Amino acid sequence: MAAEIIRTLDHPLVLAHTLRHEADILREQQKFDEAETIYGEVLTLYRANSEHRLLDLANALRGYALLKAAVGNNSESTMLWQEAGALYETLGVEAGVAESRENLARLRP
Predict the structure, then answer these.
(1) Fold type of domain 2-107
(2) SS3 of 16, please?
(3) How many other C-beta atoms can be found within 10 angstroms of the C-beta atom of residue 102?
(4) What pLDDT band is residue 1 in, cutting at 50, 70 and 90?
(5) Model pTM?
(6) Closest by Cα among 62, 64, 60, 27 to 46
(7) Would you list the domain boundaries of the chain?
(8) C-alpha span between 21 and 63 (Å, rounded)
């Protein structure tokens, strides 16, 4: 609902941030198909805008990685965790680095 209003304002980074939270909620509700579509849009918005904050991108990647693992797509989850972990490391976000490493270790065959 909030995203619908923000779409009319032409603020892609605000839209991406709002959508990411919507996708996180849908993922937590196990509405994986809906959340996946939104995460895809979020990543597209962040990657298309050079002014995005790296932390916002890392957090979106994290949520999408959790979703991919939840639906059994370990290879995509691994790639997403690797990218998120590298961003968290660049930013010095130790909790994000640790979570990324833990999930990558769990996903290894």
Answers:
(1) 1.25.40
(2) helix
(3) 12
(4) low
(5) 0.93
(6) 60
(7) 2-107
(8) 9
